[in-house]
Specification:
With 195 residues, the chain is mainly beta. 6% of the residues lie in helices and 63% in strands. It has a single domain, classed as Porin (Beta Barrel), CATH 2.40.160.
C-alpha cells in the first residue's frame, strides 16, 4: 500500500501535459463492518480508512477514479451483563489494502453517484473469543477479496468532498467452503483534493 500511495502522490505533483485532465488527493474515513455468515448482525465493528486517489474526466459528467487505501474491517460481539458491565464475546479484526476502480457520474453540480469494484488484499487478521486469541488455522481466511461498490459523493467545497459507500464481498472470504463469510461494509469517506 505504501508504494501505491507514493506513486499516486508523485503523479499528483508532476507537471506533464498528459496529466492535465487528472486530479487527486488524500482520503480519510471510517468504516462500519459486519461479517455475514458469523451469525451476528449490525455494523458494530468500526475501522479506519486512510489513503489516496486519482481521478480523470472522461466526459463532461463522467470520470474514472482509482483509489488506494488501508481499511479495517471485521465484526465484534459484546454482551451486557446483569451488573451493568459488558463482556466481549468475540472480535474479528481484518486489515486490508484496497484499490477500488470507480466510474463517477455527476447527477447534480455538487453530487455524484459511482459504481465500481474493489480488489482487496488481507495483510493481517486477528480473531479473539473472550479476549483470548484464536489460532489462525481455525479460521483460514483468503488473502484476496473482491467487492462491488456503490457510493454517493457530496462536494462540500472545491477541495473537500465526502462519500457514503457500500461494499459486499462477491466470494467467500474463508478457505473452508463449509464456513461461509462475506465482508459487509458501510463507509463514510472524506477527500481532500490536492490537484
Amino acid at each position: 500500500m505504501k508504494y501505491s500511495i507514493i506513486l499516486i502522490l508523485i503523479f499528483l505533483f508532476s507537471k506533464s501535459e498528459a496529466q492535465r485532465d487528472f486530479s487527486g488527493g488524500l482520503l480519510l474515513g471510517i468504516s462500519a463492518s459486519q461479517i455475514d455468515g458469523d451469525n451476528q448482525y449490525k455494523y458494530k465493528k468500526p475501522g479506519l480508512i486512510l489513503g489516496a486517489y486519482v481521478s480523470r474526466a472522461l466526459t463532461k459528467h463522467g470520470s474514472l477514479k482509482i483509489e488506494s487505501y488501508y481499511i479495517g474491517k471485521g465484526a465484534v460481539l459484546n454482551e451486557d451483563n446483569p451488573d451493568g458491565t459488558t463482556t466481549q464475546v468475540f472480535n474479528t479484526s481484518l486489515h486490508y489494502v484496497e484499490m477500488p476502480f470507480l466510474f463517477n457520474l455527476q447527477v447534480h453540480p455538487k453530487i455524484d453517484i459511482a459504481i465500481g469494484v474493489a480488489p482487496s488484499y488481507l495483510f493481517a487478521a486477528k480473531l479473539t473469543t473472550y479476549k483470548a486469541s484464536v489460532d489462525k488455522t481455525a479460521y483460514s481466511l483468503k488473502q484476496f477479496d473482491f467487492q462491488p461498490i456503490g457510493e454517493a459523493d457530496f462536494y462540500l467545497t472545491d477541495k473537500i468532498s465526502t462519500s457514503l459507500r457500500y461494499t459486499y464481498s462477491m466470494f467467500n472470504i474463508r478457505k473452508d467452503p463449509m464456513a461461509v463469510w462475506y465482508n459487509n461494509n458501510l463507509s463514510l469517506v472524506f477527500r481532500y483534493k490536492i490537484k
